[in-house]
Amino acid sequence: MGDRQLGGDPMIFARRGRARGPSARSTTWWGKAWVRSFEETVIEPNDLITARGLARSGRLGAVMVISGMASAVLDPGSPSALIAQVKVRRLTDAQWETFAVEVARESGNLAALEAGELPTDLVEHADEAGVEVVPGPGDLDSACECDAWAQPCLHVLALCYQLAWHIDADPYALLLLRGRTREQVQDPGTAISGEAGDAAARAATILAMADDAPTGHGLADTAVAAYDDEVGRLL
Q1: Cα 156 to the chain's mean position, in Å?
Q2: Three-state DSSP class for 158?
Q3: Which long-range contacts does 71-74 make (Cβ < 8 Å, 24+ apart)?
Q4: Burial class for 40, CB neighbours closer than 10 Å (0-12, 13-18, 19+)
Q5: Cβ–Cβ contacts within 10 Å for residue 179, how many?
Q6: First to last CA, the chain
Q7: Residue range 191-203: average pLDDT?
Q8: pTM value > 0.85
Q9: How many whole angstroms separate alpha carbon 108 and alpha carbon 105?
C-alpha cells in the first residue's frame, strides 16, 4: 500500500522497511519540532534510543492518521501484534479560522504546502495570533496494548518517530493531527464530501487496516470505535 490520502481523510502511510543512516532521522524544521514535542514527555532518555531503533526496524505496520489521532500495529499478523496510538489535541474552529486568515495573508503559503513545505512565517504569524500549529508536550496523549506502566511507551515513541518522517514529507499530516484535512485547509468553507462513493472508499480503507490489527481485546476495541466514529463523521 503506497502513501495516500483518500478523499482528504484518513492518511495512510505504507509500512516502512529497515532504515539506516541519516535518512532515519527527521530532516525538516517542522518534523524536528514534532520530535521535540514528544521527546520532552519521556521519563527515561534511553527509551528514545531504543524507540528510534524500533522505528527503523520495519516492525511497525502502516501508519494511519485521522483527525487528532495516529495509530499503527506492531508486528502485524503475528500472535504478539499490538496497537499503539498517539492522540493530539485538535485546534478549535476559532483557531482554524485564524489560521485560514494567516494562510491567505501570503499568496505563496498554499503553494508551499502543496510543494511539501511548511512556511516558517506562516507558523510564526499563526503563533503570534494564538494558534500553535506544532503541538506541545501537553497536547499529546498516548495508549498502547503493552504492559508498560509509563506512557508514552517504546511502541508509541516508535510510532511518533515514524510520524516525524511522514510529516517531513507532507506537512498536511501534521495539520490533520491538529484536526483539519488538506481540503479543509485549502478551502476552509468546504465541508467534507458526502458523496457515497468517496465516503465508501474512505470507509473501505479504514476497514482494511483491521486485517493486520489484533482483535477482540484491549486497545483494539478502542481503535475500532475511534475509526467507527470517524467513518460516521465522514458519512
Answers
A1: 12
A2: helix
A3: 71/159, 71/223, 72/159, 72/162, 73/209, 73/212, 73/213, 73/214, 74/155, 74/158
A4: exposed
A5: 17
A6: 23
A7: 44
A8: no
A9: 9
